[in-house]
Amino acid sequence: MKKLVLFIPLILVMGMGVFLYKGLFLNPQQLDSALEGKPIPVFQLERLEDSSEIITNETLKGKVSLLNVWATWCPSCKYEHPYLMRFARQNTLPIYGINYRDERALAIRELNRQGDPYTKNIFDHDGRLGLDLGVYGAPESFLVDHNGIIRFRYAGPIDQRVWNETLLPMIKELQAVAKLEGAS
Question: Among 51, 119, 123, 159, which one is most buried in terms of CB atoms within 10 A?
Fold first, then answer.
């Protein structure tokens, strides 16, 4: 019996090894989202550039759109920004920004310097909307259908490959459904 007790640490280490080995094959960009298939959380937040303008979840209804969480303190957001500028010029869909846990003046200055790809920018200073969306960190993006339902979540920076291989096919499919249902 005493010899059996000596093997308990070995068994625990082996169990942890199997668990950690399995984690090597997970894709961090494919995070499960409890909100996929559900409406965007109800919110009322100020527009980044104009604190007198209030943006709500209702603003996102009517068209397929991309909701992009970003911040000036986020290096991956800086990598992603030129791609978002390119996609915005293509006018495929409205891109709404959520400026997440940031300083308003810094964010506005960054957009003035680097360009603003967003149709509208939501100022989420305390991160409450991000928390409601289940955001792990910036950048994260949510593909939203014309009814305001979250259809896909992508964690990490969007680049040309992600746009072409993952997002654009979904966008076209959601836009086709919206057209069939009579939305714009």
Answer: 123
